[in-house]
Amino acid sequence: MKFKTLILENIRSYENGHIDFEDGENLLFGLNGAGKSTILQGVFGGLFQTKMKYQVGNDFDLPDLVRTQADEGRIELVFEAGGAEYTVEWVIQKSYDDDDEVNGAKTKQGYPKLSSDALSEDVSSLGDVQTEIQRVVGMDAESFVNSVYVQQGDITRLIHASTEDRRKILDGLLGLNRLDEYVDRMEDARREYKKAKRDSNSRLDETKKRLQDLPAEDEIQSQINKTDKKISDIKGDIDDLESKIDGLEDERETKTETLDRIDDLQVELDETRDKYEDAESDHETYKEELQEEKEAQRKAEDARDEAQEDLEALAERDELADYDVLDADTAEQAHLTAQKEAEMARSERQSIEEGRLNSLQSDLDRVESDIEETVDEIESKESELDDVRAEVESAESRKSDAEKRVERFENALENDRTTVADLAVELDIPQDASVDDIDESHIPETRQTISSEREQIVEKKSHLGTLQEQVDNLESEGECPVCGATDDAHDIDSEAVAAEHKANLEAAEERLAELDEAQETLDDLREAVRDAKSTRNDLEDARGEVEQADSDIEDAEARVDEVESTLEGLRGELEEYRSKKERLNDEIDDANEDLEDAEVRVNRVETVEELLSEAVELHGRISELESDIDRHKENRERIGELRRTAYDRMSDLKEDVEELEAELGDLDAESIRDDINEIDDYLDEFRETLDGKESEEEELVNKLASLNSKKEQIQEETKRKKMLASQREWANERIDEATEVIKKYKEVRGKLRQQNIYKLNEYTNEVFSDLYRDQSYRGVHIDKKYNIYLIAQDGEKLKPQLSSGGESGILNLALRAGVYKIITERDGVAGAALPPFILDEPTTFLDSGHVGELQTMIQTIGEWNVPQILLVSHDETLIENSDHAILVEKDPQTETSRVRSGHAAVEEATNDTETEATVGDTATDD
């Protein structure tokens, strides 16, 4: 995870601040009170909003966050996590009392807002935004402050925390609190199972005692059979008597009704005819309603049959072969059991996957990294050895070639010196003159002599030529070409003069030829001297090459021995790493096999769970449809009964009309009264006999009910005894399972805590050794209870509270960095999802020597592939070495902060500090 942009509008000293963060180290610097820490608080507020009140500073409240001149402030943070970009906006709005004084602040309606292409829709409520950001960032506000955000003045939080608080903080950061929750849950479950076992034992003892007080079931059944036979016989007699009485009573009632109706027969006849018409209308209405209910019932029955077919098809599934899913209660109970089994299977799979397998894979990754590094180093050393051996061969070859050149150049130099000596003799140069003297003195001097003499001869030759021309003109023209006088006037023997001139010209020509020859000899000498000097230089170079080759051979052979020794050690290390890798691969294979078995179990029980869930849903659907069917049936019966009643009423009324019409002429009231008296005599006799039979039957029925009650009690107690024994056994099994799960959770928690403490010690000491340069302590030790000690040079363990403030600060920085590295390794991808490491004025309590080492710690953290580090500091070394410096300034007139980035800002700020007061180490209003 990394921050990209922060916008602060009317937040504390910022009116409209825009800060862009870069990859790597981002260092915020500036004068005290300029607003540096406000930027970090803005980042925290963007992520966790109102949690700022509880996690940032001691005297902080929301109204303090909004600029004094404004009614509301806005924070916008753009960050990247998991390859997706997120933007969160938070607006804080002041509230006022009746006197227009600020009395509080709250989040503005509709805020905060979180948006991203990675979300299906924008999130806008405070709780939902905080939940989503916590999911994306991987930690809550408290974990953020305890791990990645080291606040100004709060550098010793972990050091001065109690042991229990420190354990909770570190276990929470390192993910072990989940195992504590699992253990607590399983212990609660085990207590419930034990309570169920105690209840079952108590109820089982009570049931056994009640069974001992009851007679045998066979004896009770024999008495029931005898009594039942007597009751059956009496019932037959009673039925005969009741049948006779019913017939007589019906006959008497008919005759009585006839007497009662004679007087008003005619009135009843009229009313009956009206009622007949009403009954006929009702009959038609009920017919229509009955047809509607019949159609609704048919549809419900079709849906029920379809659901029943689905249920029967489900029962045929091989996965449910051991379950009676056709019974609703059995299916529901089986579904509850399957849910528990699925949860246990998933828990087992998670334990293997997240605990044992991850730990082995982490160890394997480290070993493979060691192997890869060792192989690379071996290949590098082998390549280096080949190169060094090639250097030896090359040096030996160069030496051989150089020695041959030495011999060749020595011979050539001797020849060149002979040539020079021979040519020097021709030019009258001393034979014992050195090559350098000949080149630097004799050749230039001889060249000058030849050149000077040659110029004189050429000039003389030119003069002789002119004279010869004049003599020739005088001889040919008879007149002097100079003065115009005749040949006779000059008294010159032109022929003699011509002969003399010719002799002098020939002598000059010969001397010029000699000088030209001498010049050629001098050029040859000069060339021979240069060849000799070149040969001599080549000889010196060749001899130097021989010496250099000897030195190179000696150095290369020494390096061969050194590299071969290093290779031998590296090959030994490689064998150890490979053996360890093979062992870890075997363990991982075993763990993967166990994981595959667990996965198979999870798939199997989850499939059963899903099928049983479907069966329970089908039973519910069938039950609802059967209720609908029953309702439609009841409606049909009710309406049919109403329709039949209407029809019967029609028939009865029609018959009544006919009877009444017939009876009006032939009814005899006296004869009817005599018949009634005779019927009453028979009824009295039959009823007396019936009363006796019913009394006898009642006694037998009461006796049978008592016997059946005892039988049911015996059966119920026997059934309850079996059920309670089964419940006790089930509780015992669950207790054993819970105990084993708790044991496994505690074992995993212990191993993970041991691994985390080992890594925490390693990484904390790594950073501590980079930061701490005094000789008082040689390291840090964190025991299994998270107690922290400083290790003195004599090995004594000292509590950090006994150390200086600077040493406590260094220890806490090392501990924070160690925790941060473990979290990056735990979250994977080199901490790609983890927030940047944030340090607010970490140099507080540090002396100048240790402040210089803080840069080393930051570089070490950067080597962990942490994408981004945010740092607030005044230290010039940290500022100059930062990847991205951000200068924070405040206008003293408007009390408004602004930021500038880049090296130009750094240089300007550095120059300013040379003329302004030295910036203090601690900021109070940032």
Structural commentary:
Belongs to the Sph1/Sph2 family. Residues 198-212, 270-306, 338-356, 378-404 have a biased composition (Basic and acidic residues). This is SMC domain protein. It comes from Halorubrum lacusprofundi (strain ATCC 49239 / DSM 5036 / JCM 8891 / ACAM 34). The chain is α/β, with parallel strands linked by helices and 926 residues long. It has a domain at 2-148 and 834-915: Rossmann fold (3-Layer(aba) Sandwich). It has 19 helices and 15 strands. The protein has helices at 36-48, 52-55, 62-65, 126-137, 141-147, 157-160, 163-173, 177-212, 217-262, 265-315, 328-426, 435-477, 487-490, 494-666, 669-771, 805-827, 848-862, 876-881, 903-915; strands at residues 2-11, 14-20, 24-29, 72-81, 84-96, 102-107, 113-116, 149-150, 777-782, 788-792, 797-798, 837-840, 868-872, 884-891, 896-901. The strands form 3 sheets. Strands 1, 2, 4, 5, 6 and 7 form a 6-stranded antiparallel β-sheet that branches. α11 (328-426) runs antiparallel to α14 (494-666) and α12 packs across α14. The longest helix has 173 residues, at 494-666. It is elongated, with a radius of gyration of 60 Å. Residues 915-926 have low confidence and may be disordered.
